[in-house]
Amino acid sequence: MTWNYRIMRYSSGELGIHEVYYEQDKIDGWTKEPIIVGDNVEELYSILETIRTDIEKSKNDILEYGENK
User: Fold this and answer.
1) Where are the domains of the chain?
2) Residues 9-32: what's their mean pLDDT?
3) Confidence at residue 21, expressed as pLDDT on a 0 to 100 scale
4) What's the CA gap between 56 and 64, in Å, rounded?
5) 10: closest CA among 43, 33, 26, 28?
6) Which residue, 8, 52, 55, 61, is most buried by CB atoms nearer than 10 A?
7) 3-class secondary-structure state, position 20
8) What pLDDT score does 46 carry?
9) What whole-number distance in Å separates Cα of residue 56 and Cα of residue 69?
10) What is the pLDDT of residues 22-68, one digit of tens each?
């Protein structure tokens, strides 16, 4: 099984990025919840750039999952 990220369009017109899974080069399924949702492809790019910037800024201050601070 392989996977990649794909843009999917919802009935509302919004776009979402999902993990899509393949079995023998045919789509076998995708994640129920999107990773990112936006109104258009440019907005998806903008959100991804914000994520990249935030990761770069915080790469030396990684939070521990499950800890309350």
Assistant:
1) 2-58
2) 97
3) 97
4) 17
5) 33
6) 8
7) strand
8) 97
9) 21
10) 999 999 999 999 999 999 999 999 999 999 999 999 999 998 988 77
Q: What pLDDT sits at residue 65?
A: 87
What is the model's pLDDT at position 69?
Answer: 59
Q: Are 47 and 36 in contact (CB under 8 A)?
A: yes
Backbone angles phi, psi at 40, to 5 degrees: -160, 175
Say if CB 48 and CB 36 are below 8 A apart: yes
The CB density around residue 38, as the number of other CB atoms within 10 Å, is: 18
Q: Is the dihedral of CA 15, 20, 26, 28 positive or negative?
A: negative
What's the rounded Cα separation, in Å, for the pair 45 and 36? 10
- Map tokens 């907005």 to a residue: 43
CA dist 36 → 18, 25, 60, 66 (Å): 8, 24, 24, 23
DSSP secondary structure letter of residue 64: P
